[in-house]
Amino acid sequence: DRPVTLHELAKMRAEGRKIAMLTCYDASFAALLERNGVDVLLVGDSLGNVLQGQSTTLPVTLEHMVYHTQCVARGSKRPMIVADMPFGSYQESPQQALRNAAPLMAAGAHMVKLEGGAYMAETVRFLVERGIPVCAHIGLTPQAVNQLGGYRVQGRTEEGARQLISDALALEAAGAALVVLEMVPASVAAELTAALTTMATIGIGAGKDTDGQVLVLHDMLGIFPGRKARFVRNFMDGASTIDDAVARYVAAVQDGSFPAPEHTY
Ligand code: KIV
Ligand code: NA
């Protein structure tokens, strides 16, 4: 199979073929996700939670992200690899973001992801113009948990919804290829997705009317010991193997049966 490039993602968006994304942190799972049809592997800073046992993503370092990106890159060929920029590695300036994105790209990432709305647009443009594709991330941005006051749904008010949509438009204009929408009302995610012309939306707790979906691997396999968020479905329920569970996730994203209303705000 041909590798998943920016061009292929744009084509999937234009043709209405859903993008199936999961987090991935090592070579064995990278190979497993690839053989079951996952399009995009996110080396998420959620590794702080699910691998390291931290209560937030804030302690994750660039060195951790580089190491896990190398592991994932060795295990897969076809999927696009997106690496999270960790807390404190990009917020200071576009220059700081480029300096810290470079080792992630050298480690095998094809795109970096950073959290934040319109105020990050200048940084997004700076990276994109210098050859680094960017995935934005708005709504619930876990690196800002202390400012947000917890892991809660974002964009519930009319003003909050307007803000999310103007943030997305600014990030799209700056050249971001993808945007993760985390914990936003389905109606807002749908309106936002319809307002965009090039940037593909990837939902997590954002309803079914996005261009793709993402979940944390350990959540969708039911092996994370913490509380299960409303938007998570355990795909091991009724599956015989991990391969089977991942294949069911990909099929459910592609046919629109996941997320269902019970996973949605
Ligand atoms: O780190 C992560 O796993 C993420 C996803 C939840 C989108 O950012
Ligand atoms: Na993340």
UniProtKB/TrEMBL annotation:
The answer, when asked if Metal-binding is one of the entry's keywords, is yes
Q: Where does 3-methyl-2-oxobutanoate bind?
A: D45, S46, D84, K113
Q: Does the keyword Cytoplasm apply?
A: yes
MF annotations from Gene Ontology: 3-methyl-2-oxobutanoate hydroxymethyltransferase activity
User: Which keywords describe this protein according to UniProt?
Assistant: Cytoplasm, Magnesium, Metal-binding, Pantothenate biosynthesis, Transferase
Q: Where is the active site?
A: E182
Q: How is the cofactor bound?
A: Binds 1 Mg(2+) ion per subunit.
Which residues does the record give as Mg(2+) binding sites?
A: D45, D84, E115
Reactions the enzyme catalyzes? (6R)-5,10-methylene-5,6,7,8-tetrahydrofolate + 3-methyl-2-oxobutanoate + H2O = 2-dehydropantoate + (6S)-5,6,7,8-tetrahydrofolate
Subunit structure of this chain's protein: Homodecamer; pentamer of dimers.
Homology family: Belongs to the PanB family.
Function, in words:
Catalyzes the reversible reaction in which hydroxymethyl group from 5,10-methylenetetrahydrofolate is transferred onto alpha-ketoisovalerate to form ketopantoate.
Q: Under what name is this protein listed?
A: 3-methyl-2-oxobutanoate hydroxymethyltransferase
Q: Which organism is it from?
A: Niveibacterium microcysteis
